[in-house]
Amino acid sequence: MEKELVIVLDFGGQYNQLIARRVRECNVYCEVHPYTMPIEKIKEMNPKGIILTGGPNSVYDEKSPHYDPALFSLGIPILGICYGAQLMAWSLGGKVETAPVSEYGKTETMIDRSGRLFGNVSEKTVTWMSHTDYIAEPPEGFRVTSHTEVCPVAAMENDEKKLYAVQFHPEVTHTVEGQKILSAFVLGPCGCSGSWKMDNFVDKTILELREKVGSGKALCALSGGVDSSVAAVLMSKAIGKQLTCVFVDHGLLRKDEAESVDRVFGPDGPYDLNFVHVDAHERFYEKLKGVTEPEKKRKIIGEEFIRVFEEEAKKIGAVDYLVQGTIYPDVIESGLGKSATIKSHHNVGGLPDYVDFKEIIEPLRMLFKDEVRRAGLELGIPENLVYRQPFPGPGLGIRIIGEVTPEKVKIVQEADAIYREEIAKAGLDRKINQYFAALTNMRSVGVMGDFRTYDYAIALRAVETSDFMTAEATNIPWEVLQKVTSRIVNEVEHVNRVFYDCTSKPPGTIEFE
Ligand code: XMP
Fold first, then answer.
1. 61 C-alpha to center of ligand 1: Å?
2. How far is residue 37's CA from residue 402's CA, in Å, rounded to a whole number?
3. In the chain, what are the domain boundaries?
C-alpha cells in the first residue's frame, strides 16, 4: 500500500506534536522529524508535503537552526509556520525583522480568500500568534495573503512553487479556522487523498509484524494498560502462538484488576494467545515488609518485577523479540532522530539485561494515545480497557504512605473501587484525567455508633491535565464527594475519615507517596 506521508520538520516549537496530530486528523499520515534530518533522507522518504514548525529562535541569528535552502526547490509543497514561515522568507531572500511590538495570543487577522489555503476561511478571523520577529518583506515571487494590525505578512505564498507560510499557529484550537488551513494544505497542493485510517494501520501493521518475526518467538510484558494491551493484541493477530504475554500480578493492583486482565487475555477471553498470569503478590509483600521510604519502595517493586519477568522469560526460552507498548509521545520525548534504544520500560521500571533479545518491537511507536485507543477499538478490545485511566507500574505501592501491608492494600483497594464507581455514576469518568484513592498513614479518633474508633484517613485525588507534567485538582461536585465519603467510611473497615486533595502539580505530584 502506497503511504501518503507528510513530514513535520521540527525546529523546536512547543506545538510540534500537535501539528502532526492535526494532519492525521485529516486522515493523512504524518511524522515529526528533527530539522537535522538531511535533505537526502527527505528525498528518499518522498513525502507529499513538508511542514516547517515554529521555534524559539531568530532566523537572522547564525546559531539558530537553519535548513539547506535547496529544500525549497525540491518541488515538494512546503508550509512554514511561525519560525518556519520566517525561515522560508529569510532563506529565499525576504526580510525578517524584530516586530515593533510582539504579538501574543488571539489576534484578529485579515485573510485574502484567494490565497490557496484560505478558500474556506473567513475574511476576518481569529488566529493564535506568538512571535517577536516577523516577515517585513516577502521574497520575490511571493504574494501576501494575510495581515494583522502589527504584522504586514501574516501569511504569504508562491503557489507556483507550492510554498506557503503563516505567521500564526493553525495547529492550536485558538486559531479558530486553523484546521481548515492545514486541511487545505495537505489535501490541496500536497494532493493527499486523506485515506489514512486506523483500519489501514491495523491491517498493514499486522502484515509487517508477521513478515518481520517470521518463525521467531516474542514476549510481551502485559500490564493491562491500554498501550501494552493494544500492542499485545496486534502482535498476537500477527504471529499467534509464537507470542507469549506475561502479566505479573504484584499484589498492588486495583480491586478486580487482575481478574479483568484475565477475562480479556486469559483462556476464556476472546483472544487465542499464550497468556501467563504470574501471581507474585506474596514475594512483593515480603520484600516490602518494614519499608517506608517511597523511593526505596519503588526500587524494590521495579527490581522484583524484573526478577519475576526474567524467570518467566527463561522458562519460555529462546525468545527473539520483546514487544513494548511505547507510543509516539514517548518516542518524541526520548529524543527524535535517535533510534528507539532499549530504554527502560516506564511501566516495569527496567528490562532484564541478560535476556538475550534480538530486537525490541514497538508496533505503536508512531501513534498518539487517542490513536492507540482507536486501534484498540478496531481490534475489538473492550471499551473499559481502551479508555482506562493511567495506572502506574508500582501500583498501589505508591498510593500507600508508609509501610505497605496486605491489610493496607485491601483498604485502599476497597476505597478506590467505591470512588471509581461513584465517579462513573456521576458521568465524570471520561472527564477527569486521573483519579484514585490513596491511604494516608494518619490515624485519628472518630466515633461510630457509640464507639470510639482510631482509624485511617483516605485521601481522594482527581486531576485534570493534558500532559501529566502539570495538573490541576478537579472541581468535583460536593454531592459526589459527600456520597463517596459516606460510602467509604461506612463500607471500608478501618477508615473513619476522608480528605480531598486540592493540591495542583506543582507543588504536589499526581501520585500520593
Ligand atoms: P506524578 O506522581 O509524577 O505522576 O505527578 C505523573 C504521572 O505518571 C504516573 N506515574 C507512573 N507511571 N510508572 C508508571 O507507569 C511509574 O513508576 C509512575 N510514577 C508515576 C502517574 O500515575 C501520573 O499519571
1. 39
2. 49
3. 5-187, 198-386, 405-500
